[in-house]
Design a protein that fits this description.
Layout lengths: L1 H8 L5 E5 L2 H10 L1 H4 L4 E5 L10 H11 L4 E5 L13 H6 L4 E3 L5 H8 L4 E8 L4 H13 L5 E7 L2 H9 L8 E5 H7 L5 H5 L5 E4 L3 H16 L5 E3 L11 H10 E8 L3 E10 L8 H4 L15 H5 L31 H8 L11
Parallel strand pairs: 1-2, 1-7, 3-4, 3-5, 5-6, 7-8, 8-9
Antiparallel strand pairs: 10-11
């Protein structure tokens, strides 16, 4: 496949393919795919790490809730160290806030049952991949009559973010390596607009090296054949229509709304909010809290990194003031964050002696 990719790329202009998913970013680094691609085929990372695209206001709000009496926050572990405008959940925890790590939103059912005098808030951060489990948790809580479990929702949808990127003149992309996990839920057909409306090649890829290469080869074949389509190179799990049962649960609990993305601002119809009939599980409607919007002043370039405009090593803080164990920006926190992946595996021009 590498030989074929090289043959098809020969003589072509510099090509930039965006991998949209943070798991792809890590797999590409881990398998050394960047190093074996021809010089004129560049892989850039996109906004595919849910923690990274969660904005400061959301973190500030979660911290504010954690500081209320009889509130307990339940979250995936990688949210703990994400910096808000002034602090992080980890800092709030060390100051006494009750914050529990969970591995699934469904773990919150037991937390709520074991702590009937507390309001349990699950930080529902993620894309279409994890949103159905959050929706299933709300349905389970409702069925069991649980009244002290709530969601602080920042669930996001990938296709509107891709549209946003394609309408941003600063973003230069010749094709998309589409997120396999998201595609499992929403289906390959949900990406058809890329070919019909934007005429841009795309390929859904799995996460093993050969699956990624197969998707990249498909992108080259489309460019060579002067055509744009959504190639499904992850057919073992991705169907055209997606996971119908998961989509049904999602639609039952959530409706589409505008959402704020770190680095991209408000994107129309790119988020999920709970339908009115589930409002009693929405902490922002049950116990609204005001936070002051603070614009952070530092040199973090997460916003441009997430749009593939600059690489992490273009950030003056990368590997110096900003490292995984004291991250300045969200992209350095999660294991799937672009900056964290560049730090761990190294990118071009990265001076390893500066790593520690
Ligand atoms: S290296 Fe750190 S400060 Fe720079 S863009 Fe990445 S997360 Fe932000």
């Amino acid at each position: 496949m590498v030989k074929k990719i090289s043959e098809l790329a020969a003589g072509k202009k510099h090509l930039r393919f965006m991998e949209v998913c943070g798991t792809h970013t890590v797999s590409i680094f881990r398998s050394g795919i960047r190093q074996i691609l021809p010089d004129n085929v560049e892989l850039v990372s996109g906004p595919g790490c849910p923690v990274c695209v969660t904005n400061d206001d959301y973190i500030d709000k979660a911290i504010a809730y954690s500081q209320q009496e009889n509130f307990m926050i339940a979250t995936f572990g990688d949210m703990l160290k994400v910096p808000g405008s002034r602090s992080s959940l980890s800092a709030a925890q060390s100051e006494g806030a009750e914050i529990k790590i969970v591995y699934s939103p469904l773990d919150c059912i037991k937390l709520a049952q074991d702590n009937p005098d507390k309001k349990i808030i699950f930080l529902a951060v993620g894309f279409e991949t994890t949103a159905p489990t959050a929706a299933a948790t709300v349905l389970a809580a409702k069925a069991q009559g649980i009244r002290n479990l709530f969601m602080l929702s920042a669930q996001k949808l990938v296709p509107p973010a891709l549209k946003f990127l394609l309408n941003d003149s600063a973003v230069k992309v010749d094709g998309f390596l589409l997120p396999g996990h998201v595609a499992v839920i929403i289906g390959a057909d949900a990406f058809n607009f890329l070919a019909t409306d934007f005429k841009i090649p795309s390929a859904i890829g799995g996460f093993e090296a050969e699956e990624i290469l197969s998707a990249l080869l498909s992108l080259l074949e489309q460019i060579d054949g002067n055509r744009a389509e959504v190639s499904n190179n992850y057919r073992s799990v991705v169907k055209a229509e997606g996971n119908v049962a998961a989509k049904k649960i999602l639609a039952q609990v959530y409706e589409v709304t505008d959402a704020e993305w770190r680095g991209m601002g408000k994107i129309s119809a790119s988020g999920l909010k709970m339908r009115d009939e589930f409002a009693t599980f929405d902490i922002e409607r049950v116990a609204p809290i005001d936070i002051e919007h603070v614009k952070k002043k530092n040199a973090c370039r997460c916003g441009e990194v997430l749009r593939g405009i600059v690489k992490p090593i273009d950030c003056p803080l990368f590997g110096k003031a900003c490292k995984p164990f004291h991250a300045v920006g969200a992209c350095m926190v999660s294991v799937e964050g672009v900056c964290a992946a560049w730090f761990k595996y190294g990118g071009s021009n990265f001076k390893w002696e500066e790593k520690f």
